[in-house]
Amino acid sequence: MKINILTTYCALVMLLFMGCNTKQKHKMNTQTDHIGQKVDSLLRIMTLEEKIGQMNQYNGFWNVTGPSPEGGDAALKYKHLEAGLVGSMLNVRGAAEVRAVQEIAVEKTRLGIPLIIGFDVIHGYKTLTPIPLAESASWDLEAIKTSAKNAAIEASAEGINWTFAPMVDISRDARWGRVMEGAGEDPFLGSRIAEARVKGFQGDDLSQYNTIAACAKHFAGYGFSEAGRDYNTVDVGTSTLHNIIFPPFKAATDAGVRTFMNSFNELNGIPATGNTFLQREILKKDWGFNGFIVSDWGSMREMIAHGHAVDNEHAAELSLKAGSDMDMESYAYIRHLVKLVKDGKIDEALINDAAGRILRVKYELGLFDDPYKYCDLDREKDIVGNKDLHDGALDMAKKSIVLLKNENQLLPLKKQGLNIAVIGDLANDKTSPLGSWRIAAEDGTAISVLEGLGNYPNNNITYASGPKLYKGIPDFTTEVDINTTDKSGFNEAVNAAKNKDVVLMVLGEHGFQSGEGRSRTNLELPGFQQELLEAVYKVNKNVVLVLMNGRPLAINWADQNIPSIVEAWQLGTQSGHAIAQVLYGDYNPSGKLPMTFPKNIGQIPIYYNYKNTGRPSPSDHDANTVFWSHYGDVGNEPLYEFGYGLSYTTFKYENMKLSSNAFKPDGTLEVSFTLTNTGNYEGKEVVQMYIRDLFASSTRPVKELKGFELVNLKPGASKTVSFTIDSKTLEFYSANNKWEAEPGDFKVFIGGSSNTVLEADFSLSSN
Ligand code: BGC
């Protein structure tokens, strides 16, 4: 009912408005302008309180389909909802539940403005896909896009219309638990994945019932928290900020992402939530972003602890002035903005802008046309957990696995006649593979490795868990309590490994050992796992190590001793099926690491696109000198470099050719080479192109990824692959404080990892 009155009123205002200015009428011909007019009309009839209400987001706070809450915070929030003082809610899910809150907003409030319903749809919703870091290891942009699309289909069937994803924070520090949520260390790969995820969630038409608004987070610098400790201080220079941290956010903006989330960290002294440079200058002005920015959970209020805002009212003032449009759970806007406007400290134009941005996205979602479009009980029943979603999750899971080592052709396993010992608590775990950020999924819903192996019944499997990995049942909010005292099961596991053809050891981290608040200073295998691995290896050398983890681990001993190592991350609901299919060769692994694996923790931060320094190697005339950039106890090289990953087949790179050795700023250069499958299996290779800008106004990394492609080849087959380089490829944020390509000499490298095998020189002329 309310909606009708509102719609009619807005239409009238719009007609009047359009009628009095033909020039403007002409200008407002596009869909976006049309929405802009609706927003303006609506803002004109809203009270200051109602506009501020749109900027207020509350967490789900009572049993929404039950009676309304009495007393306490919940009752107050409920009252706010009824009074039209809430614009969004998060963590309300289920078609019936979302309908219940939406009905209050639409039927009971003066203007009936629908809520936008947010949720952390980070890697799938109820049917979980691999953690984002794992998906990124596929380098398969189409698959990643489809995965996000499927997540949107499932989440929207449960009433959700806005996800707090993709997380596009670049990080070089595996101690930071949130690396599991991102795309790894590289801005180019991170940018392509950011685009794929945004397009997957949002589709071509945001107003469809099965697409949802995406949110690029956390703007900005969150992945550079000092020493990898979550929420810690961030202090980065201009070059790193623009060249490394910003690109995926910019790519998400260009891909049309409708919302941003700011971050908990300070950036060079100013908390991101109160950071005008980040939000107003870079995002809204330079990049022309016209969606809205939500704060991170309580991040406005946290500016008091940062030592930036003196109290919550000051936090509200700083946040709004800096460009934060919506308050997630700080209660800063709802409590203080009216007074701040009345005291003349905040210009109402800032409120109009923020509320207008939020209303715009609601219009784009089609919520004003049908606020219940995501609340169809039949659709929810049909969609959630259906076969298509499980098939999609399995496909993505297989593509995410990285083969790190495979000596003596231990893999793929023969499908019959083998006696196999399967060892490790994680092999039988149906929860841990779900990883972190899985609020809508139920515990115990992942296919375990043991279950996956059950699909290959002609081998003989003996399972021994070894010591329990953790004590009790880990949960989302508390520290995972690793078992370091109870060794029961250790000897039994070692005995099970004796006289077997192959031992599969499934080791790694619990799913809740990475994620938010899960930083670690030790990246080795936790608990008794390393000791167990060494003891098993003593009695049987044919060990295949299957790793499950949410971040790069330091597994130097394993790399030196264990013949086969498979990186299986946390692969989601279909985990065990995907792992079994790879182990048995029904899927030939093709993943490549999106993040460097260190030899030991002391090498961190370690990343492939480092700077050369003034002393990259011992001087020529004094090879024994210590005065160069290195460690005395371990080399500078990582254990496994960025872009690395093996296949059951092998590939040869040769015949590199450049179309010319120099090109002009408006020209292009073709780089081509031949890729041949020289092994015995059909396989996919991620071919990678890197460049190096040899001399620049602001120094450039020794290598930068600038292109990649997935190439599938049958045994013996060859293909000519080519990449185009233009001046855009060579642009960087220079010492002139702008993006530009500087004329000069470059190198281009080609290979199957950042340790490339082919290289050539070229130059960019000034004209
Ligand atoms: C996280 C965000 C998340 C939000 C809502 C915060 O703690 O940093 O990434 O979207 O909670 O759940």
Set out the fold topology.
Elements: H1 2-19, H2 22-27, H3 31-45, H4 48-54, E1 56-59, H5 72-82, E2 88-90, H6 95-108, E3 116-119, H7 132-136, H8 141-156, E4 162-163, H9 187-202, E5 215-219, H10 238-254, E6 259-262, E7 266-267, E8 270-271, H11 276-286, E9 292-294, H12 302-306, H13 312-322, E10 327-328, H14 332-342, H15 348-365, H16 377-383, H17 387-400, E11 402-406, E12 419-423, H18 449-453, E13 460-464, H19 490-497, E14 502-508, H20 529-539, E15 543-548, H21 556-561, E16 564-567, H22 575-583, E17 651-658, E18 662-663, E19 668-677, E20 683-693, E21 704-713, E22 718-726, E23 732-733, E24 739-740, E25 744-751, E26 758-764
Helix pairs in contact: 1-3, 3-15, 4-14, 4-15, 8-9, 8-17, 9-10, 13-14, 17-22, 19-20
The chain binds beta-D-glucopyranose.
